[in-house]
């Protein structure tokens, strides 16, 4: 019989590509992950990993096993959800992952709703870049999260997760004077930290307009970005949720680019009482689904 815990490690290796990354995500040592994967190979009776020096890749058999693993884990999550549905009161922890600009406008009202309706439910909020949320959901560090994608930065579906649309926003060009995006070819730019969705979105949106931006400053807090724009340090792209009290000196030009926010949770958990309560609170007026 294959060990579900070892299958989780194989699934994470398929996503993260290195044993070191899997170990860091799951708080194991690399040697422990390697030993568990070797044991899984013995249980499977076929090679699952191809090793070249320090690099490992999954065999065709391993990729097939990962697909089965997604189904197995989703069924287990669904079974857990059905058991939880028999309880009269919502208790325990609900771990929510959210990106910064959604805390004030989306999450705070939902937390009030959840706290009022389910006072014995412990709510734990973690602020993180949405690019990190899928991994945190897969490894059970979060129960539900808000994830996002931009035009020009689509996010590939994760077979471990289910998502549903929550919000679509306009992206604005923040500058000291109104002008088309294409006129800022030689202007200094302000963008997020490299590797974040906001940074990638800035580059790709500009490239779609025919140029690659010269990024002078990096900042992930949109209030800081707007302050830098107001100080004449460059221009930036700002999603609608981040624009609550922009400096008077800034002109905001709406672009065709959009940011889309989705609610994400592990497959099989949609009807778990706590996840269902969170989904309902995040989309007021949605009714029963």
Description of the structure:
The protein is α/β, with parallel strands linked by helices. The protein folds into three domains: 4-84, Winged helix-like DNA-binding domain superfamily/Winged helix DNA-binding domain (Arc Repressor Mutant, subunit A), CATH 1.10.10; 92-163 and 261-282, Periplasmic binding protein-like II (D-Maltodextrin-Binding Protein, domain 2), CATH 3.40.190.10; 169-258, Periplasmic binding protein-like II (D-Maltodextrin-Binding Protein, domain 2, 3-Layer(aba) Sandwich), CATH 3.40.190.10. The protein has nine helices and ten strands. The protein has a six-stranded mixed beta sheet. Strands 1-2 form a two-stranded antiparallel sheet. The chain is globular, with a radius of gyration of 22 Å. It starts with a helix and ends in a 7-residue tail after the last helix. The model has no long low-confidence stretch (mean pLDDT 92). Pfam families: HTH_1, LysR_substrate.
């Amino acid at each position: 019989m294959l060990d579900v815990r070892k299958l989780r490690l194989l699934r994470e290796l398929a996503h993260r590509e290195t044993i070191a990354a899997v170990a860091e995500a799951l708080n194991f040592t690399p040697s422990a992950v390697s030993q568990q994967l070797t044991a899984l190979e013995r249980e499977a009776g076929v090679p699952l990993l191809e090793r070249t020096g320090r690099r490992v890749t999954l065999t065709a058999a391993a990729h097939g096993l990962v697909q089965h693993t997604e189904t197995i884990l989703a069924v287990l999550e669904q079974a857990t959800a059905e058991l939880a549905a028999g309880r009269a009161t919502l208790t325990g922890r609900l771990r929510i992952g959210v990106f910064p600009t959604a805390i004030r406008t989306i999450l705070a009202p939902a937390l009030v709703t959840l706290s009022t309706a389910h006072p014995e439910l412990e709510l734990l909020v973690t602020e993180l870049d949405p690019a990190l949320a899928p991994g945190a959901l897969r490894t059970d560090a979060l129960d539900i999260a808000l994830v996002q994608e931009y035009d020009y930065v689509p996010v590939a579906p994760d077979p471990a997760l289910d998502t549903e649309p929550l919000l679509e926003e306009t992206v604005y060009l923040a500058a000291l004077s109104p002008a088309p995006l294409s006129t800022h070819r030689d202007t200094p730019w302000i963008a997020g930290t490299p590797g974040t969705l906001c940074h990638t979105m800035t580059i790709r949106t500009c490239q779609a307009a025919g140029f690659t931006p010269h990024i002078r400053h990096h900042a992930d807090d949109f209030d800081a970005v707007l302050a830098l724009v107001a100080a004449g340090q460059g221009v930036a792209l700002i999603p609608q949720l981040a624009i609550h009290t922009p400096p008077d000196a800034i002109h905001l030009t709406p672009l065709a680019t959009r940011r889309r926010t989705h609610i994400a949770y592990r497959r099989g958990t949609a009807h778990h009482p706590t996840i269902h309560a969170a989904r309902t609170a995040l989309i007021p007026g949605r009714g029963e689904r």
